[in-house]
Design a protein that fits this description.
Blueprint lengths: L1 E5 L11 E3 L5 E3 L10 E5 L5 E5 L5 E4 L4 E3 L3 E4 L3 E5 L5 E3 L8 E3 L5 E3 L8 E9 L2 E12 L1 E5 L4 E7 L4 E3 L3 E4 L3 E5 L5 E2 L9 E3 L5 E3 L8 E9 L2 E12 L1 E5 L6 E9 L4 E3 L3 E4 L3 E5 L5 E3 L2 E2 L3 E3 L5 E3 L8 E9 L2 E12 L7
Parallel strand pairs: 6-14, 16-24, 26-35
Antiparallel strand pairs: 1-4, 2-3, 5-8, 7-12, 9-10, 9-13, 11-12, 13-14, 15-18, 17-22, 19-20, 19-23, 21-22, 23-24, 25-28, 27-33, 29-30, 29-34, 31-32, 32-33, 34-35
Length: 346
């Protein structure tokens, strides 16, 4: 349907001497000066406005990601949207798709877990009773460089003797390989044994079993593939474990013992800690004996046990065992008493 109007004279063309031909041409019979001016031709369809798709541009996606190809179409009535894939398959909003590809209600084509095989030209088709429009979108798929998902730098604190796990989760296409560099420069790969207690799991996590203060330092996880690399750096601080004496976690333990004159007595001071603590006994006469110590009458064994032979009255008093390492110290105070005979009360 065509409609002609003369500027500032709407409706004037309805008079005689005018004719609109079937092809839309305006015919003026016996044109005169009064016909001068601008004329507006308006074309309308009883079926509505044909679809129009806003211009698109090439799209690049990383392998493994979801690619979204928009198709913004206008028209009256609202056009139906479908997509023509590079392999000739046609997908519409009403179709379920192949499982990886589908059309959203707004006309966007989604392709999940794209690969290099999805590269090509995708054509959006918009249709309504008034006409059709199409738009070709080129999809380029590139390999995804390795990415470490955790934050790039992290500080971790632990206590000696703990088992520590340092995660390093990576992704990329192709699948990246992971290895760790220890503080001494040693490289460790998954399931490779370089020293006891150190292991890299297949998922990239580094395990430090029975960590010691000497394990403190920088640990670097490196993910590499043919497309690049990415890294994560841990700063590990392993604190010494304070010593315990005879299994007790106390700074000071007091106990009493008795012994018969001229007999032999053993007093245990079993100290444990990481790093191993140094053991020292302080005698009643304020003499310091560091384990191991071997005297003619008094012995301090490697395990911290104090041995006193031929006990005599001067052995009465406090015997103090001190266990010390970088994590602190523990003290055992033993008050010794002497019995004159085994059958006598002390």
């Amino acid at each position: 349907i065509w409609d002609w109007d003369k500027e500032e004279a709407v409706g004037y063309l309805g008079g005689t001497g005018w004719a609109v031909l079937p092809n839309g041409t305006l015919s003026i019979r016996r044109a005169g000066p009064q016909h001068g001016g601008q004329y507006l031709c308006t074309a309308a369809s009883p079926l509505g406005a044909p679809p129009r798709i806003a211009g698109g541009r090439p799209l690049t996606a990383h392998s493994g990601d979801t690619a979204a190809l928009p198709c913004r179409a206008r028209g009256s009535p609202a056009p139906s949207i479908s997509w023509l894939l590079p392999n000739g398959t046609r997908l519409s909003r009403s179709a379920a798709g192949s499982g990886r590809a589908g059309v959203r209600p707004d006309g966007t084509l989604l392709i999940r877990a794209v690969s290099v095989y999805d590269r090509g030209l995708y054509t959006c088709l918009a249709e309504n009773p008034a006409g059709t429009d199409s738009l070709a979108v080129k999809l380029q798929v590139v390999a995804a460089p390795p990415t470490v998902l955790e934050e790039k730098r992290q500080s971790v604190a632990g206590t000696a003797g703990d088992s520590l796990e340092l995660p390093c989760t990576v992704r990329g296409k192709p699948e990246p390989s992971v290895h760790w560099v220890l503080p001494d420069g040693t490289a460790v790969r998954p399931l490779q044994t370089v020293r006891p207690g150190v292991l890299v799991f297949p998922n990239g996590t580094l395990l430090l079993g029975g960590a010691a203060p000497s394990d403190s330092g920088s640990y670097e996880c490196i993910a590499t593939s043919s497309t690049g690399d990415d890294t994560k750096l841990y700063r590990l601080d392993v604190a010494a474990k304070p010593p315990t004496i005879n299994g007790l976690h106390r700074n000071k333990t007091i106990m009493k013992v008795t012994a018969v004159r001229h007999s032999k007595k053993h007093i245990d001071c079993r100290a444990e800690g990481t790093p191993p603590p140094q053991i020292m006994w302080i005698m009643p006469d304020n003499i310091f004996l560091t384990a191991p110590y071997y005297g003619s009458r008094i012995v301090v064994h490697k395990n911290g046990t104090l041995e006193i032979r031929n006990i005599r009255p001067s052995d009465t008093g406090d015997f103090i065992c001190v266990a010390r390492n970088d994590g602190g110290e523990s003290v055992l105070v033993v008050s010794g008493g002497i019995c004159w005979h085994w059958f006598s009360p002390c």
